[in-house]
Amino acid sequence: MILTGSEPDVECPLCKGRETIAKRGYQHIMPGDWSLAECLRCGASFIAPMPDAGTLAKYYDDDYYGPGESKFIGPVERISWLFRFLRARVVKRLQPRGRILDVGCGRGVMLKVLKHWGYCVDGIELDNAAALRAEKNIGQPVYRSLEQLAANAAQRYEVISFWHSLEHLPDPHRALQITHQLLSPGGFLIIAAPNMASRPASLSGKNWLHLDLPRHLTHFDMLSLARFLEKEDYRIIRHSHFSQEYNPIDALCFIFELLGCGDLYPYRIMTSSHHGKDNVGFSAGKRLLSLVLLPPLTMFAIIGANVSSMAGSGSTSTLIVQKERGRGGIPGE
């Protein structure tokens, strides 16, 4: 079915194209009865119609961020901090010093590390609760939107990062326009996001961990996103399909789904807000079996996720691009 394009809700939020189709197999997804459309020009998939800000706010609560200072249970929380440290190392390898902007900085853990290393840092976090945690971690205010930052920015940034945040924004096209304005010539843009064109996404379908409707508003074909950026004043530095932070847990959820353990198990039991809740309805035997199988299946998931990544089809991928000097920008600037 080709959508008419006469309604603003079916305009592609990435390339602004209007030739879109209802994405087969992605209708009436709960909770909320969400459906996806797909852009025939850039390959992006997106919620149609797009939910309003009031509706979205209901999905960013303690179940998402965790009720206290931690999102995950103890050991998993410590591992998550390690991965934020590794993100900071990626920035350091690209740019040994300078000004760094993290869009969707969450609790500000990566920025805390970079600030300790001597960088000038800024963060943007849409959710107020997460922003308050970030301000506590980095000891300075964070902005609530790119528009707010752009109106106050006196200098440009050497690195701007979207670590799994671009998919949360209702207008990624506008976000990339503002980013282009804020980024210094020769500066680096990092975008890590789920890859809707990956084999794991195709296998999992509606139960894909990274579908996460309605928080993930736009789902990118990451290769097409790289081509989009390449046409708009950026040079591709690296496109990696490897992510030990996200890809193995996605594979593990897929395996447990095949075993009948429910949607997104065991990811849900790793979060501090869900810990202990998602076993409700499990028989004692099934709980015991899941615990016994968890170690070997985790190893199997790590191997499977990395094999998929080696084949160029990681469940998530990371783009690093460099702003070229003396060319145009993203249309609409």
Can you describe this structure?
This protein is of the alpha/beta class. It has two domains: 57-243 and 316-323, Vaccinia Virus protein VP39 (Rossmann fold, 3-Layer(aba) Sandwich), CATH 3.40.50.150; 248-308, no CATH class. It is 38% helix and 17% strand. The chain has a six-stranded mixed beta sheet with strand order 5-4-6-7-10-9, sandwiched between helices. A four-stranded antiparallel beta sheet has the order 1-2-3-8, with no helix packed on it. Helix 3 (74-94) crosses helix 4. The radius of gyration is 20 Å and the shape is globular. The model is unreliable at 1-8 and 272-281 (pLDDT under 50).
For the biggest sheet, the summary is: 6 strands, mixed
> Which structural class is indicated by helix and strand composition?
alpha/beta
Overall residue-averaged pLDDT value: 87
> Helical element count?
12
Give the overall silhouette. Answer: globular
Oligomeric state as shown: single chain
CATH topology of the largest domain: Rossmann fold
Number of structural units classed as domains: 2
Number of strands: 10
Spatial gap, N to C terminus: 33 Å
From the 3D coordinates, which CATH architecture of the largest domain would you assign? 3-Layer(aba) Sandwich
CATH superfamily of the largest domain: Vaccinia Virus protein VP39
What is the top-level CATH class of the largest domain?
Answer: Alpha Beta
Please indicate the percent range of residues in DSSP E strands (runs of 2 or more): 15-25%
Helix content: 25-40%
SSE series:
EEEHHHEHEHHEHEHEHEHHHE
Tell me the Rg in angstroms. Answer: 20 Å
